[in-house]
Design brief:
This is DUF6316 domain-containing protein. The chain is α+β, with helices and mostly antiparallel strands. Helix content is 26%, strand content 22%.
């Protein structure tokens, strides 16, 4: 569980779990908004997918965050 406070958070740190999960032999990642992305062949591929997703999100104009 992640116990670090994120930017803009006040009060106690909410419960957090891993963004990655496995169904059968397929790996997925989930976003804060509840979007699941996958399947990926391995956890490592899912981690790369998440990094790419976050990179694209950072390129969006602020009103889309």
């Amino acid at each position: 569980m992640d116990t670090q406070r994120r930017s803009g958070e006040d009060g106690p740190v909410p419960f957090r779990s891993s963004r990655f999960f496995c169904v059968g032999s397929n790996w997925y990642f989930t976003t804060r908004e509840g979007f699941d992305s996958g399947p990926f062949a391995s956890r490592e591929r899912a981690e790369i997918g998440l990094k790419r997703f976050l990179h694209v999100v950072r390129l969006l104009p602020e009103e889309y965050h």
